[in-house]
User: Fold this.
Amino acid sequence: MKIELKLYASLGKYMPQALVEKKQSYLEIGEGTTIKALLEDLKVPLETVKLIFLNGIHAEDSTVLKDGDRLGVFPPVAGG
Assistant:
């Protein structure tokens, strides 16, 4: 199944190189994959993840992904 993945700010370095080279954000994943499992597969340190949005709604890392989902992952940010 295919999802759209966006890793923002400092997390962008964990995007699969093949996607970066093709300037794509669609990723093939297996059925039953959770957000946490996907992030672990991508070697994203979970302590660097502050916000997770799934289809524009706040989500927990235990959520199982479905075909066509849009996943956005953000680190802590500061500004002001």
